[in-house]
Specification:
It is built from ten helices and 14 strands. By secondary structure, it is an alpha/beta fold. Strand 8 and strand 9 (254-261) form a beta hairpin. The structure holds N,N-dimethyl-L-histidine (AVI). N,N-dimethyl-L-histidine binds next to strand 12.
């Protein structure tokens, strides 16, 4: 994303490899040496990839955005009442979406909004727009990778914190990473709560179609990751030499997006070459789907318990309120002692 862009832009004049670029190259090569080969989904999101993702969210097959929005529309006042008034809302990931505006509009006297994302210019522009729309709301954008520790300035020190993490982004992390991320977000919440969008297991044909649409937008989105790698790392992936595939992995309960090599080929990456066999898959993304039990168990491992679950009539998607389990909070995580749990928060 923007961090990748920035690291590489600094190299434009030097003709040498900057340490940041070397680190990027090494991490890409490390992924390509694994079995199966892997690249990080961050490579989807250059400018074209971000536009393609917006198109995906409008596709008839991609139910996730539509269903999450329908849950929010129909249950918003209940959701807002459940998290309470005077909150400091922290949103990991880009915070410009309809969902963020809907939540902020529905909350009672939100005190502060803190979006955290690596796309710095985009983030600041969105923060400025929100300041104009919500007079009295303190908006402080933090340009950072939300998966790593980041510092939140004390702009609303006496307010309960709510972490807002919609869109089923949690599904893009494998289980170990997801538990780590949820634990990290629990520390960020400081004894507060979290609203999270969670995609549920359903008919596999519905799930596969969402990642392999008839118009080929997801295929273009997937292949664009190779174009992005070529442009930024100087690799020579031949896009015509790969095709998009989405498969349901029932054992791991996830959709996997693959880029499948059409033939045996060598790809140059920096000063190295990587060999692909004909039919060999490069994994570009996991998108985990949960049952209520598997999600609750994972959240529990990260020190959260489930406060409430809102879902659609087919139970395809859910919005869940997680409550920090105070027994797992260290003395340094202020807030838990200050804000007592409501009786309704008991699982
Ligand atoms: C961002 N993330 C939640 C999307 C998903 O559904 O896993 C990314 C995506 N990949 C293909 N289509 C959408």
């Amino acid at each position: 994303m923007a961090a990748v862009e920035r690291a590489l832009e600094r190299l434009a004049d030097t003709g040498r490899r900057h340490p940041d670029e070397q680190a990027l190259l090494s991490s890409v090569l490390e992924g390509l040496r694994r079995r199966p080969k892997r690249i990080s989904p961050v490579w989807f999101y250059d400018e074209r990839g971000s536009c393609l993702f917006d198109e995906i969210c409008e596709l008839p097959e991609y139910y996730l955005t539509r269903v999450e929005l329908s849950i929010l529309r129909s249950r918003l006042s209940e959701i807002a009442a459940s998290v309470g008034p005077d909150l400091c809302v922290i949103e990991p990931g880009s915070g410009t979406s309809t969902k963020t505006r809907m939540l902020l509009d529905a909350l009672e006297r939100p005190a502060a909004y803190v979006p955290v994302d690596v796309a710095c210019e985009h983030l600041e522009a969105a923060a400025e727009r929100l300041r104009g729309e919500h007079r009295g709301l303190k908006v402080h954008a933090i340009c950072a990778d939300f998966t790593a520790p980041f510092r939140i300035p004390e702009i609303a020190p006496f307010h309960n914190r709510l972490v807002y993490f919609p869109g089923s982004t949690i599904g893009n992390f494998d289980r170990h990473e997801a538990v780590q991320l949820l634990s990290h977000l629990r520390r960020v919440a400081r004894g507060g709560s979290m609203l999270i969008g969670v995609d549920m297991v359903k008919d596999r044909h519905v799930m596969v179609a969402a990642y392999d649409d008839a118009a080929g937008v997801t295929a273009a989105f997937n292949l664009n990751a190779l174009e992005h790698l070529n442009r930024r790392l100087g690799s020579d992936f031949d896009l015509a030499g790969f095709h998009h595939r989405a498969v349901w992995n029932a054992v791991s309960s996830r959709i996997e997006m693959h880029l499948v090599s059409r033939q045996r080929q060598l790809v140059r990456i920096g000063d190295d070459f990587v060999c692909f066999a004909a039919g060999e898959a490069l994994v570009s993304e996991y998108s985990h789907k949960y049952t209520q039990e598997t999600f609750a168990a994972m959240a529990g491992e990260a020190g959260w318990h489930i406060g409430q679950v809102w879902t659609d009539p087919r139970e395809w998607f859910s919005v869940q309120r997680l409550v920090a389990d105070c027994s797992t909070i260290s003395a340094g995580d202020r807030g838990c002692r200050v804000h007592a749990r409501r009786p309704s928060d008991t699982a």
